[in-house]
Amino acid sequence: MNDINNNIGSGDIISLQNVSKHFRMGGNTVKALDEVTYCFKKEKMTAVVGKSGCGKSTLLNLIGSLEKPDSGEIFVGDLCLNRLSEKETVNFRRKKIGFVFQSFNLIPNLTAIENAMLPLEFTNNRRRKEKIEIASNLLNEVGVGKDRFGHTPGKLSGGEQQRVAIARALVNNPEII
Q1: Most CB atoms within 10 A, among 2, 22, 36, 146?
Q2: How far is the C-alpha of 113 from the C-alpha of 172, rounded, in Å?
Q3: Long-range contacts of 103-109 (CB under 8 A, 24+ apart)
Q4: Is 165 exposed, middle or buried (0-12, 13-18, 19+ CB in 10 A)?
Q5: How far apart are CA 130 and CA 126, in angstroms?
Q6: From start to end of 26-70, where are the E strands?
Q7: Coil, strand, or helix at residue 20?
Q8: What is the pTM of this model?
Q9: Are the beta carbons of 107 and 25 closer than 8 angstroms?
């Protein structure tokens, strides 16, 4: 079994080695990523930029372990994501990754505070009061006013929704965002 609990070491935090991901659309094959090799350095911010449709979201979905590559290997530290079982993959995402989705993916019937603390609900090692305090602090840090905590996403502006999504991504103190 892979040891997902270990902290990621120094140097490369994410390493892609000849990673490919292709999709079938009609009778065509779309090569979203084709033999990509790249290393992301620890404690460095990296921007993934490019034209629409060039594979940015596919790359992030692979790194976030939301999808598996067709070929190649993805390492986070010494952990090869390709070799994780489904249970290990879920555990990896829960403990190591904070993901801010392009469309936010907030749960429509949950309030801002409930959306922000949602990842904490899957870790049973904290009391509800502590979970609320952690989520509240993060919402404050990203600029969501306390008067907005009880609002559902439909009652929040686009910017507020984005801030809630950022707080949710940070709530478990992930090593990678």
Answers
A1: 36
A2: 14
A3: 104/153, 104/161, 104/162, 104/164, 104/165, 105/165, 106/153, 106/161, 106/164, 106/165, 106/168, 107/153, 108/152, 108/153, 108/154, 109/152
A4: buried
A5: 6
A6: 28-41
A7: strand
A8: 0.84
A9: no
**Measured distance CA(87)–CA(80) in Å, rounded:** 14
pLDDT in tens, the chain (177 residues): 456 555 555 567 899 999 999 999 999 999 999 999 999 998 888 899 999 989 999 999 999 999 999 999 999 999 999 999 999 999 999 889 999 988 899 999 999 999 999 999 887 688 999 999 999 999 999 999 999 999 999 999 999 999 999 999 999 999 898
Encoded tokens for 42: 């620890």
